[in-house]
């Protein structure tokens, strides 16, 4: 199981320039509130090892979502990295996901992806 307190601390330290708040919602879920008001939910399965989802919710800002997950939805079985897949902007626009299977590394990669989009302004310090 992932140590959410350690993960929260790493994210707060390494990505402080875009984070307003991080809350541990459940024993297996973090919510990260970003500087633009959008949020990221990071969820880890308690039953299936390495099952996870990284979901960036922006629908109320620009009608987009970005989500890497490895839930084996049969409708995405055509994706070469199945069950891993990436919802790129919408639920229906699905692509391959190369995010790490290691939950700590995958979280870090997803946060780096969020920064790389340029959609979040860096906070003044």
Uncertain regions spanning at least 5 consecutive residues: none
pLDDT averaged over residues: 93
Broad shape: globular
Percent of residues in helices comes to 10-25%
Largest sheet, strands/sense/barrel: 7 strands, antiparallel
How many domains make up the 3D coordinates? 1
Beta-strand portion reads 25-35%
State the separation between the terminal residues, measured CA to CA: 34 Å
Task: Classify the oligomer.
Answer: single chain
Radius of gyration: 14 Å
Number of helices: 3
Provide the spatial order of strands within the biggest beta sheet: 1-2-3-4-5-6-7
Number of E strands: 7
SSE string, helices as H and strands as E: HEEEEHEEEH
Helix/strand structural class: alpha+beta
